[in-house]
Design goal:
It contains 5 helices and 15 strands. With about 230 residues, it is of the alpha+beta class. Helix 1 packs across helix 2. The structure holds uracil.
C-alpha cells in the first residue's frame, strides 16, 4: 500500500487520536516491520505497522458480514430503536472513512447485511446498474399459488406509486406458505410490496445471500470480518 503518515493511519483506523499515537510511539508500542517506530509523523506502508505486536485491523478497507436480528434499524438516527451499528466492534465507529451498511434491511427483516468503509463497494452493490442477486426467504399469511412464479418472473409486477415494473425475479415455493425469492434490485420494502401487490402479506422475512456472500451458520447478532 502507498505510504501515509503513521499518526494518520492509526487514528483513521479508530485506535486513538493522532496525539495519542505520539504516546504509543514514545511508549515503544508501535513497530514498522521489525523496527520500533521513533516518530509519529513518519510515512510508512500501513500494512507494515504493528501495534502491541499485532497488525492493524483492515488497513486497506473493512468488509464484514452481519447477521442482523429483527428489531434493529440500519439508520444511525436515534429514536427508531436499536441500530445495527450497536452490534459492531466499537472501534469501527471511530474509523474514517466511516463504516456503513451496503444497502439496508427493514427493522422487521433479519439476515445478511454487509458492512464496509469502502465507498466503491457500496456504489458497486447498490447502484441501479448493479445486478447483484439478493436471496430472501419469506413466510406469508396464506398458502402460495404456483401462478406467482410466472408473475414474478414476467418483469411486469407494478408496485404502488412506482412507474417502472419490477425486474424479473425468481420465486421458488419451498413450503405451502414459504418461498425463496431472488431479486437483482433493491427497491424500498421490495419483497413485502411484491407479495402485497398479489394479495399476500409477508409475516417473516430473512435474507440468506447477497451477491457471492452467504450467511451460512453465522449466529444472529454476530459479525464476521472478511477483510484481511
Ligand atoms: N425487501 C423488503 O421488503 N424488506 C427488506 O428488508 C429487504 C427487501
Amino acid at each position: 500500500m502507498s505510504p501515509r503518515r503513521l499518526d494518520r493511519i492509526v487514528s483513521s483506523l479508530g485506535y486513538c487520536s493522532r496525539r495519542e499515537v505520539r504516546d504509543l510511539v514514545a511508549d515503544g508500542r508501535i513497530r514498522i516491520g521489525e523496527d520500533l517506530a521513533t516518530r509519529a509523523d513518519v510515512r510508512v506502508d500501513p500494512e507494515l505497522v504493528r501495534l502491541d505486536n499485532e497488525p492493524l485491523e483492515a488497513p486497506g478497507g473493512l468488509l464484514a458480514m452481519l447477521h442482523k436480528p429483527i428489531g434493529y434499524v440500519c439508520t444511525r438516527a436515534d429514536g427508531e430503536g436499536p441500530t445495527v451499528y450497536e452490534l459492531l466492534p466499537p472501534r469501527w465507529m471511530s474509523r474514517n472513512p466511516r463504516v456503513t451498511t451496503i444497502g439496508r434491511l427493514d427493522k422487521d427483516t433479519s439476515g445478511l447485511l454487509l458492512i464496509t468503509d469502502q465507498g466503491d463497494l457500496v456504489h458497486r452493490y447498490t447502484s441501479p446498474k448493479s445486478d447483484c442477486e439478493k436471496v430472501y426467504v419469506a413466510e406469508v399469511d396464506h398458502d402460495l399459488d404456483e401462478s406467482l412464479i410466472a408473475i414474478f418472473a414476467s418483469g411486469t409486477v407494478m408496485l404502488r406509486g412506482e412507474e417502472k415494473p419490477c425486474l424479473p425475479a425468481k420465486l421458488e415455493i419451498i413450503a405451502p406458505s414459504t418461498a425463496r425469492l431472488t431479486l437483482t434490485e433493491g427497491r424500498y420494502h421490495q419483497v413485502r410490496r411484491m407479495f402485497a401487490s398479489q394479495g399476500w402479506h409477508v409475516e417473516k422475512l430473512h435474507r440468506t445471500h447477497f451477491g457471492d456472500y452467504e450467511l451460512g451458520d453465522l449466529a444472529e447478532g454476530e459479525v464476521a470480518p472478511m477483510h484481511r
